[in-house]
Every structure is written in C-alpha cells, then in structure tokens.
Amino acid sequence: MGDNIYDYVMTYSYNKLEETARTFRRLGEAYNSASDGPSVAPGISRQLFLVADTLEECMTIQSANINISVKSADKNFIKELKGKCIINGIRIKNTRLITGSNGKHQIILMARSVGRGCISIRRLLSVIACCSNTGYYSDNMNRTIINEEFHQYVFVEEDRFRILSGVSRINKGKERYNGDNFLMSHPDCGKAIAAIADGMGCGKRAFIESRMVIELIENCIKAGFDEKAALELVNSAYIAGGGMGNPVTVDMSIIDCQTAYMHCIKLGAVSTFIKRESCVEIIKSTTLPIGVLEKVDYDCTTKKLYDGDYVVMVSDGILDNFPCINKEEQMADVISSISVREPNAMAAHILKQSLRCHNNKPSDDCTVMVIGLFDTYRK
Predict the structure, then answer these.
(1) What is the arithmetic mean of pLDDT over 235-260?
(2) The domain containing residue 141 runs over which residues?
(3) Pairing of strands 366-375, 161-170
(4) How far is Cα 55 from Cα 19, in angstroms, rounded to an integer?
(5) E strand residue ranges, 45-179
(6) Does residue 293 sit in the same domain as residue 170?
C-alpha cells in the first residue's frame, strides 16, 4: 500500500508543479502582450520563462513538499464497507484515509470486480456513501469501471456548503465589447472563488485588460497560490507589462465550502452586499485598483455566511445607474425586496431595477453576480 500512496502523492506533486510552471509562463506572456512599446517587459518575461523552465525540470524529480496526513481508515468502517462491497460484486483492499491541508478527506483504496465482467464505479461510490456520514465524489482521474484486476481509486469528500451562482450583464450603449470580465471557479481546494475585473472605461481595450487580469488570477489560484499572493503577482505583471495608467478594479470573494467563511478582497472595487432573508449587509472599500501602485493596495474583510445567504457583487456601472447620493443604500433596498431565490433570476432582477433608474440606458458596462450558499447537512 505504501507504493500506492507514494504514487498518489507524487502525482499530486507533479500536477501542482505543472500548474505553477504554466502560471509563470502565462505571466511571462502577459508582460510581452501587455506592452505596446519598449519597456522592461522582455527582460522580466525572460526571467519568468526561466522560472517556468526550472519548475518543469523539478517535475521530473517530483520534489514538492505536500502537507497531507495518511492513515488507515476506521476498522468498523472498513468492515462494513468490505461487506457491502462484496454484496455488490466488488472486492476492496488497502483502504486508507487522507486528510489534506484544507481538512478535506479522501478515501484511497484498491478495488476489483468479483468474478468476470465490469462494474460501474457509481456502484462503489453509492456503497461508500451508504457507509459514511458524509458524501464523496469520484476523483476525475479514476477509471469509470471496475474490472477483474485491482486498480487504485480515489474518492473525495464533498463540500458541506453547495454554491449556486448567477450572472447578468449588459454593455454600455452599442459597444461590442464589455469592459467587465468575471470569474466563478471551484478549484480543487474546497473553496469557491468569484471575481469581477472592471477595465477603465469601456470598449475593446477595457475588455482586453480586464480579461487578462481575470485569467491570470484564475491561473495563479489553480496553481496553488493563495489569493493575496496571486494579486501581488498579477499586479506586478500588469504594471511591468505597460498597464500603469490603465487601472483595473478587482472584486473577489473567496468562500470556504466547509466552514462558510468568506474573504472579501477589494482593489478599487465598489461595495459587496450580503443578503440574509430581508436584511442586507454592505461591505465597503476605499482601495486603489490594480495598475496604480507597485505594491498592491487591497482590503480584506472576513464574514461568516449561513445557509440561505446570498452574496451580491456588482461592477460600478450598476451603482452609477442610481441617481441618488446614497447609491449603496438604494441598492440594498433593491436587494432586500427580492422574493425570488434562484441566483440567475436575482441577478437579472437587480440589473433590470438598476437600468430602470437610468431610463433603461446603462451609464457604463454593467455586471451583477449573485452567489447563493446552501448547507447540505441541513435536513
């Protein structure tokens, strides 16, 4: 079994190194593509490409330091699992429980079919679900069938909180491009990440700049960087690549799907709203966008969310449509009056109400993201 665990950890290490190398390569490309003329970008991009090359060399020796805990699964659990697997025509062995640095569990085991023929992995997954107190899903690297030979299978603990999201947006006037770009991602780390990047002004340039920022953020997070380190890297790449003077605001919400704590990170972005039944909380910020300072300037606010809460993120165009001085308060009134519970419908309603306040003509590119949080443990 030791070799199987070793193989699993080394595969995990290899994938992380590969993601990180790809991110540095993308950052190097960003330095080049974002520069319109002579700058320091070529030299810096060469350094980033060199880092990517070095990481790719490290992939050959798989030398990452992975923070995981491996132990045998509970004996009673193994006994029950083995018995029910046999009833379902599956024989298992070498069952182990892995606890990742994020606290999520993974079950690793060897399995084969009893007798001839193949069995869908869904049958084994249903047996695991029956024997455990929490739900699991099959890792995407697993085989989809169980045959007559023993093979390793990995099952990952499901998140406690389920995330549903919706987006509604409109371009300013007759612009072909929307200067707002957004991200809704569920990387394999037990988190949900939502972000809106808003380029200065509107049109194609704003679209290209905000898209580059949002894609680099996504790649950094997938590579294993924490959110703050990702923003530091993106800001440095954007400035060195010629982005100084063309700032991009970033609004990012990171939700832990096990604990329901949310980190709200803002760089020049407008307020975020949390709807809990008929009450609405406003999270404000006074920071500067990406591309203004060499050292990134951000606010990070941590909030505990609960079952049925909704997080509403908007670009500045939504608030600019309101004619009053207290735009956030008027926005909060619109959100608190919403009776629908489906995130897409909520986002569409907010956009519609915002446009009504501006003769149905958007003052700027407009984007609304709504994220709903639902506790799967609640009966």
Answers:
(1) 82
(2) 69-157
(3) antiparallel
(4) 10
(5) 69-72, 90-99, 105-113, 119-120, 136-138, 145-146, 151-157, 161-170
(6) yes
Distance CA 11, CA 102 (A): 18
Q: What is the pLDDT of residues 167-213, one digit of tens each?
A: 999 999 888 899 899 999 887 667 899 999 998 888 888 888 888 88
Instruction: Examine the fold and report which residue of 59, 78, 99 is the final residue of a domain before the chain moves on.
Output: 59
Q: Percent of the chain at pLDDT above 90?
A: 42
Its sign, for the CA torsion 317, 322, 325, 328, is negative
Sheet arrangement for strand 279-283:
161-170, 366-375, 310-314, 272-276, 279-283
End-of-domain residue from the set 40, 59, 78? 59
pLDDT band at residue 33 under the 50/70/90 scheme? low
Q: Which two tokens stand for residue 35?
A: 């520069």
| DSSP secondary structure of 217-259 | HHHHHHTT--HHHHHHHHHHHHIIIIITTS-EEEEEEEEETTT
In this structure, the answer to whether residues 259 and 350 fall within a common structural domain is yes
**Residue 372: in which H helix or E strand, if any?**
strand 366-375
Query: How far is the C-alpha of 107 from the C-alpha of 23, rounded, in Å?
Result: 29
Asked whether residue 64 is assigned to any structural domain, the reply reads no
The residues, any chain, with a CB within 8 Å of residue 260's CB and separated by 6 or more, are: 160, 161, 304, 305, 306, 373, 375
DSSP conformation class of 289: P
CA distance 273 to 362: 21
pLDDT at 329 exceeding the cut of 90: yes
Tell me, yes or no, whether 80 and 35 share the same domain.
no
Stated pTM of the model: 0.75
CA distance 125 to 130: 9
Q: How many domains does the chain have?
A: 3
Whether 253 and 191 map to the same domain: the answer is yes
Residue 196 lies in a domain: yes
331 membership: H or E segment, kind and range? helix 327-336
The verdict on 245 and 350 lying in the same domain is yes
301 assigned to some structural domain: yes
Q: How many residues does the chain have?
A: 379
Q: Is residue 274 assigned to a domain?
A: yes
Tokens of residue 239, six digits: 């400035």
Q: Are 204 and 353 part of one and the same domain?
A: yes
